Amino acid sequence: MNTSVGNTVRLIGAGLRALLVLTVVCGVLYPLAVTGIAQAAFNEKANGSEIKDQSGQVVGSSLIGQSYNLPKKNPDDAEEAVKPDLKWFQPRPSNGLGSNSVNTQYALILSGATNRSADNGAVNGKCGKAAEEGTLCALVISAKDAVVADNSTAGYKVKPEDVPADAVTSSGSGLDPEISPEYARLQIHRVAERNKLDVKRVERLVAEHTTGRTLGFMGEPRVNVLELNTALKALSKT
């Protein structure tokens, strides 16, 4: 009996010592080591890939898309349509994007795609004006009409066939922070007009914020909308 009790005490003691050692190693030393390496080698990424404006204020993360909408006349009216603030470059369509110091009236973050099939609403295999309301085809057609109308100016007319796919469809997450260079360039004349800037200067701004394929062959060229609008805000104040 005494031997059994002694063995039990030794096992409990060994278990507690193992718990203590593993807690210190896995719960303290390992996290501190990983955090230290991350801060030393990847400081910017470890801190959330923050983007700062000219004053040093954090305006968001380069990893999460932002919205640039006009404030609602009645913030409590859920039925009131949200309209884009056309002085800024617009991101991909989404049901919800984060807020930032450039445009702070939309704080909710929602994530997700439409979950509709590619031919949702198609008639005879094609999307057309006859598409049923609420279907993907109807949403895409409506979005394309809005892109054409919003980005056409007195001296620049957008052709429907020039509207890229990312201008009328959301990403899988719904929080894509980037748009194609084609969509960014399509918005240049409207942004220049709204901010009273020279078109050539805005063109250079887009070119400066266009990133090529990763390692030269992975992915597609892209433009980070938050970085671009942060630079645009600084430019419009000069």
What can you tell me about this protein's structure?
Residues 96-108 have low confidence and may be disordered. A 3-stranded antiparallel sheet has the order 3-5-4. It has a two-stranded antiparallel ribbon with strand order 1-2. It contains 7 helices and 5 strands; from the N terminus they run ααββαβαααββα. The protein folds into 2 domains: 2-43; 50-237, no CATH class. Helix 5 (188-195) crosses helix 6. The longest helix has 40 residues, at 2-41. A hairpin with a 5-residue loop joins strand 1 (50-52) and strand 2 (58-61). The chain is mainly alpha-helical and 238 residues long.
Low-confidence stretches: 96-108
N-to-C CA distance: 87 Å
Number of domains: 2
Structural class: mainly alpha
Summarize the main sheet: 3 strands, antiparallel
Helix content: 40-55%
What's the Cα radius of gyration?
26 Å
Report the mean per-residue pLDDT as an integer: 86
Counted by DSSP, the helix tally is 7
With strands numbered from the N-terminus, the spatial order across the biggest sheet is 3-5-4
Number of strands: 5
